[in-house]
Amino acid sequence: MSTYTAHFRVWRGDADGGGLRDYRVEVHDGEVVLDIIHRLQATQAGDLAVRWNCKAGKCGSCSAEVNGRPRLMCMTRMSVFGRDETITVTPMRTFPVVRDLVTDVSFNYDKAREVPSFVPPEGVAPGEYRMLQEDVERSQEFRKCIECFLCQDTCHVVRDHEENKKAFAGPRFLMRVAELDMHPLDAAEEQGLDRKRSAQDEHGLGYCNITKCCTEVCPEHIKITDNALIPLKERAVDRKYDPLVWLGDKIRRRT
Amino acid sequence: MATDTQPPAPPTPPAPPARHGVLSAGRAAIAARHLRTDRWWLQPLLTALGLSAFVVYSTWRAFANAYYYAEPYVSPFYSPCLGSNCVDMPLGARWPLFGEWWGLSPALLVLIFPLGFRLTCYYYRKAYYRGFWASPPACAVAEPHEKYTGETRFPLILQNIHRYFFYFAIPVALILTYDVVLAFRDEQGAWGHMGLGTLVLLVNIALIWAYTASCHSCRHIVGGRLRHFSKHPVRYRMWTWVGKLNSRHMLLAWLSLVSVALADLYVYLVASGAFDDPRFF
């Protein structure tokens, strides 16, 4: 077992201002960044604010930016850094800061509320839903999401353009739209809700330029861009930009 | 356990409210536009260099209008030949649909389709948005633009026609496949022969088909648009196969880009007399 002293720079402050502060702190074998933040809290910075919960990469609470990259602190091993390397930890830079490493992520809950929920099929009571595995497996991938909001944090559409927050739901919630649109029992269309069209018109799918940062940072390794956003873009094209599909749908409905 | 602490740095003043992006009011006051310490710039740089090299080479070759046919090989840049000013290509895909009035290189008439297919491709979009437009240059690295509307308006809304270029890419790939069949001849046109050029064209068309079939629009068309895979087992199986290829779309995009340039270069070298095509049998 080996121990060394690491150089940490941690952002301290609140909405009124703040800055990076330097700390020298012990690191032991097998530790993750969150362990070091906890050690700082216990020994040198008792008032350091940090949000955390499971320490197992499943609750999505300890999202932050480590050396400028959006990551879960509990899933970032100290062994990936050199012992001489300075490790910089900041809060997520897309959301308003509350204090130290804690940000106000309510933007995401607002966006979640804007996505109409699952529409139950008529004539099928809860408990009677039957689906085949091949019909649900696409949606199941998206259900792995732990809502850490790292994808929302890294997405340049809102990270670099605060003004786009109103129009753009972000990768997490466009993935939610895709999940529902692919759901074999969702009856939204029968009720007059066109999720494909609303993805483009109401949730800002057109802002996504598929540069895949959401996929790169996802701690659950969900292929957000390839399996959710691009398929959703193709579905929006079916509705809005492809006259052949439009014509085919018209003819099929008449027969 | 814990150790020495350096004196805390004085707090920096709050970020000016009018600034945008990561410097916006309310966000953590950090003056640096990004704090990444890795070589985040390397990938967009290599992408930009790779794509630029291809653009320069293909522009030169497309306008050259020379050395694109060396019996039995035709350059993929010049097939099918739709102008009336093409060289004689026995059995080759030569259809002078554009008549005499077209005086420029015939490659320009056909390259528009593979160019459009690649320009609107979901992988290449990522590549050039990052490499050339820095939107964003890398993840969590602030982009330099003050405003961003993505693909919501003209001209980038035209990216939505990718599937039409996919439809056009299929006949182009079929014609290039036919060209490979023709390459199993010798210089006199006798069948049942093969040279190094045949192998070059064969590898090229295999990569072009793999890239075309791995396209995201293809994946959507063969089965992705369905809601109930269980009702369409054949399309579900095809969607699964395309999905496997699709996971390597970036790799296939680059390999097929390099192979098509190399195939053209090979034909150029043989046609210009700089290189003698080794014959296998």
UniProtKB/TrEMBL annotation, chain A:
The keyword Thylakoid does not apply. Pfam families: Fer2_3, Fer4_8. It comes from the Bacteria. Residues 6-93 form the 2Fe-2S ferredoxin-type domain. Pathway: Carbohydrate metabolism; tricarboxylic acid cycle. Gene3D superfamilies: 3.10.20.30, Alpha-helical ferredoxin (1.10.1060.10). GO terms for cellular component: plasma membrane. InterPro entries: 2Fe-2S_ferredoxin-like_sf, 2Fe-2S_ferredoxin-type, 2Fe2S_fd_BS, 4Fe4S_Fe-S-bd, Beta-grasp_dom_sf, Helical_ferredxn, SDH/FRD_Iron-Sulfur, Succ_DH/fum_Rdtase_Fe-S. One of its GO terms (molecular function) is oxidoreductase activity. One of its GO terms (biological process) is tricarboxylic acid cycle. Keywords: 2Fe-2S, 4Fe-4S, Iron, Iron-sulfur, Metal-binding, Oxidoreductase. Its cofactor is [2Fe-2S] cluster; [3Fe-4S] cluster; [4Fe-4S] cluster. Belongs to the succinate dehydrogenase/fumarate reductase iron-sulfur protein family. This is Succinate dehydrogenase subunit B. It comes from Actinacidiphila glaucinigra.
TrEMBL record, chain B:
Keywords: Membrane, Transmembrane, Transmembrane helix. The chain crosses the membrane at residues 40-60, 101-124, 164-184, 190-211, 251-271. Residues 7-17 have a biased composition (Pro residues). Residues 1-21 are annotated as: Disordered. The keyword Membrane applies. The keyword Membrane applies. It comes from the Bacteria. This is Integral membrane protein. It comes from Actinacidiphila glaucinigra.
